[in-house]
UniProtKB/TrEMBL annotation:
Annotated organism of origin: Amycolatopsis vancoresmycina DSM 44592
One function term, GO molecular function aspect: hydrolase activity, acting on carbon-nitrogen (but not peptide) bonds, in linear amides
Keywords: Hydrolase, Signal, Zymogen
A Gene Ontology BP annotation from the UniProt entry: antibiotic biosynthetic process
Protein name: Penicillin amidase family protein
Amino acid sequence: MSHIRKALAVFAAALSVSTLGAGVANAGQDGAKAVLRYTEHGIPHIVAKDFAGLGYGYGYAAATDNVCELAKIYVTVSAQRSRYFGPDGGGYPSLSEAKSNLHSDLFFQQLNDSGVVDRLVAQPAPQGPRPEVRQVVSGYVKGYNAFLARTGRSGITDPACRGADWVRPITEQDFYRHFYSIAVTGGLGFVTEGLFAAPPSGAPTPAPGTAAQLSASLRDGLGKGGLGSNGIAVGSDGTASGRGSVLLGNPHYPWHDGRRFWQSQLTIPGRVDVAGASLLGMPFVMIGHTADAAWTHTVSTPVTFGLFEVPLAAGNPTTYVVDGKPEKMTSREVTVQVRQADGSLKPARQTFWSTRYGPVLTDVGGIPVPWTAKSAYALRDANATNMRGLNTWFELDQARSTADVVRALSSTQGVPWVNTMATDRAGNALYADIQVVPHVTDELAAKCSTPLGRQTFAGDGLPILDGGKSSCHWGSDPGALEPGIFAPDRLPQQQRRDYELNTNDSAWLANAKAPLTGFPRIVGDQDTERSPRTREALLTAEASKFSTDSMKKMLFTDHSLVADLAAADLAKLCASFPGGQAPSSSGPVPVGPACTALANWDHTYSLDSRGSLLFQRFAARLANLPRFTVPFDPKAPLTTPNTLNVGDAGVQKAFGDALVELRTAGLAPDARLRDGQAVTRNGERIPIHGAQGFLGVLNVMTPVWDPAHGNVEVAHGSSYIQVVGFGGRGCPDSSTLLTYSQSANPASPYFSDQTKLYSRGEWVKERFCEADILRSPALRVVVLR
């Protein structure tokens, strides 16, 4: 205990007080802006006397762990990637779908030149940031800059940016531009490449995309980089004890670049005490809990943008017609500096075109929507005026009940593209899809959809409306904070005492016993097939009574619903091939020990399961095949479709191709998962359990397949995980895990420590209450003056 006493003495002395309790209550005295108390795995518990100090501590601590990743974000939103990295490269997919540094810069420079972020920030709340948010942001910027001033570029230990001239102090404008890029991820950020549109020149234009192609593009994630999540909120009736609640927050986000989470606790004594994680550079807890309420988010189904097809004036492709009257498109020429091979800089220019609805575009996620002599398409992004989300998470960080969560979501209307699940100490479980949704009713879509729009709206909720009629503009609700979006009371929300959940399907079956119906198509579908992951979550919730321990065990069991549905039949099919030879694209292939492995497999993606890798590679080939013989039945959505279609030649060949693929990678058909699924950190191979969501595995891990070695990296999957329980104790019973660890810096002790915990199926017992923090054997105190 001597190390704790020493740390507390340092802490108290820094704050000029005699006891720790008083020190926390008076954080900020004697020039201390913030106090960072680090516990196991480098998790900072940040204490300050005011919001500016809280932001300062966050900015300093976040930069300490991830300065290079943060610097990449700021060089991107300031449109200077081409200046420092050259025009090629792959852009920065964390912030837009631009395919090159040059297109990334031109896209962000166009936004910066438009002044949209500055105008939004200049507004008073609720449209602009509330005063406390501005204080947090101001402090964050100063804290980040203080870290750089202390270390200097040459003192940065991360080789990714040590000494780099693109690492620089930031401004508040950089911060707000970053948040704006997050808000428009599902709109402008998705269609970035399509914005490089030019009026028709007489050359042939590409054939327009079909509704099926647009649907496939939308289903591919709306440009959100493989984002997904599980959120399971269990009320008192669903707990093992019959009281309190349990919440699982399990976002599936990229393991690399700027969409990483970072964990902290933020405390202003008597005002705020919240713990959890946020996306890098966001000094608010975005998924987390207070002493009495917990919440998480999942990527939602509503399409947050819409298209308008505008008729063009004859002979003038930059003039469109609304209600019979011509309107000129506006244009903006954008210039960025591009580094040449000899190190010199030269300007690159691009003209962007826009209408009253928004920018003109020529493709959506790679699917053409051509600009012809007769018509053009314009995009309206419902989040293009959204700076309100900062207020949303500020309010959530002070929630004490599910009612407070609903109030925060409804009063700010700033959640850009996610659902919310929440629990509280009183035993309530909440589902709410209170987010920014374009105000396109089914009636408006029926009246105003183009022929293509009639198909895309029915299929995926993407509105494509007649831009030649002002009566086809998006509608308004009295309770909405701005025109063109639905008011909170028009969107799905439900509170129960058993459970509410979402795993990226629509709101329809947030609870299997109480379907949510009657909402506009743009909000989501109903009576449609649920994903295997949704079915796994619902079947588990319906059959279980949860404690925090059982929730953690359930997630890390890595059970596959699709294996339950198909593995036994696949094993029989394997055993039926004549001569033990399965068909494949390259000819017959011996099945070897595959049949026995599948027959004996426990249907999990735990590290020692045999048959799991073979089934993974097989199932990955089934997306466009008739997989099941029993079709989906809306009256039995949890159990249909089912029964593997073993008679289909494509299914049989998929099995043989999976065998070939494993053997090419040097893996036996009965290899353990650990033999063929791992990441390497600082030369150490770390096996990774879990699997893709299409397998009906809740603990999603989407690996990167190397044909010569198997799964060698994780693209995206379980990231920050929290299980929070409220029961009889005053302190929440909470455990967390940041799968890829706190720091992207390979020189940091917190670069892969939690990744190793994850590999072993272990969790971090969260230290939320004061006594728990003080008991940490790793307690380390940093005072920022």
